[in-house]
């Protein structure tokens, strides 16, 4: 046990579909002595770790925190010093609303070697799974990716700014704040702006609701959409081949009125 070389690899597990794991992530998991993992959309990703690797669940869900972030930071370091190669597995990409930067900073303060394996972020992958291209020539030249809930549990002030722009707006962790988000877009006179809400995107449990800023709250109620879900607001939603039919029908009904 004297030759243990501590190493921490921060790995993005992707948006949920286990096939959207990168080859680099699979290789990193195969070499793990310990895997500390979040509440993953697909637990079968853990099968890529060796059978004898220690698996520790450190995930957080709203209102149910197995560990605080400080405890997770300490666990990562303690396990690296004790067992060697730790893989810290996080959903999506570890540096997009994943607090991966904090974990890396903490590990490096102990002089431990760290590696980051980026993951496919749900910001782009989940809309793409519904045929929504979040940038599209002539329709949207940029996008905002915003967390719906900041560290002090408030709605990000960036949402109000995003509502003023012509960009596609992708909001993660925003379902609990959906009425506030909709209100901000209505204040900008964007009641007819297309909206898609995609729950458990890229997984077999995927559920989708589409509408406009004015109608989406009713759609959410009817379809019983809940977290984890991604909210996409923008003209690009209407451009999706998968969703086009809905908007054509919707517009013909509006004109008929």
UniProtKB/TrEMBL annotation:
The record's annotation in CDD domains points to: SUMT
The EC code for this enzyme is 2.1.1.107
Q: Where is the Tetrapyrrole methylase domain?
A: 7-215
User: Is Methyltransferase tagged as a keyword?
Assistant: yes
Q: Which UniProt keywords apply?
A: Methyltransferase, Porphyrin biosynthesis, S-adenosyl-L-methionine, Transferase
Checking PROSITE patterns in the record gives: SUMT_1
Top EC class for this record:
transferase
**Listed GO MF terms:** uroporphyrin-III C-methyltransferase activity
Instruction: Please give the family membership noted in the entry.
Output: Belongs to the precorrin methyltransferase family.
According to UniProt, the name of this protein is uroporphyrinogen-III C-methyltransferase
The source organism is Flavobacterium tagetis
Q: From which lineage does this chain's organism come?
A: Bacteria, Pseudomonadati, Bacteroidota, Flavobacteriia, Flavobacteriales
Give me the gene this protein comes from.
Answer: cobA
């Amino acid at each position: 046990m004297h030759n243990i070389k501590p190493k921490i690899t921060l790995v993005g597990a992707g948006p949920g579909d286990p096939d959207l794991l990168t080859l680099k992530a699979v290789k990193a998991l195969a070499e793990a002595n310990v895997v500390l993992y979040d509440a993953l959309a697909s637990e079968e990703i853990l099968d890529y770790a060796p059978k004898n690797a220690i698996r520790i669940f450190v995930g957080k869900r709203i209102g149910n925190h197995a560990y605080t972030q400080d405890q997770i930071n300490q666990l990562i370091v303690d396990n690296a010093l004790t067992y060697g190669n730790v893989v810290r597995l996080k959903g999506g990409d570890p540096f997009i609303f994943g607090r991966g930067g904090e974990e890396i900073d903490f590990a490096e303060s102990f002089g431990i070697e760290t590696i980051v394996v980026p993951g496919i972020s749900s910001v782009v992958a989940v809309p793409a799974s519904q045929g929504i291209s979040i940038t599209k020539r002539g329709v949207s030249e940029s996008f905002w990716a915003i967390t719906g809930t900041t560290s002090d549990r408030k709605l990000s002030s960036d949402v109000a700014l995003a509502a003023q722009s012509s960009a596609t707006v992708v909001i993660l962790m925003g379902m609990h704040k959906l009425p506030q988000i909709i209100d901000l877009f209505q204040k900008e006179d964007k009641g007819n702006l297309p909206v898609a809400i995609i729950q458990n995107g890229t997984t077999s449990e995927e559920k989708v609701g589409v509408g406009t800023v004015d109608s989406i709250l009713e759609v959410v109620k009817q379809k019983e959409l809940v977290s984890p879900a991604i909210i996409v607001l923008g003209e690009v939603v209407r451009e999706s081949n998968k969703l086009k039919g809905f908007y054509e029908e919707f517009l013909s009904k509006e004109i008929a009125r």
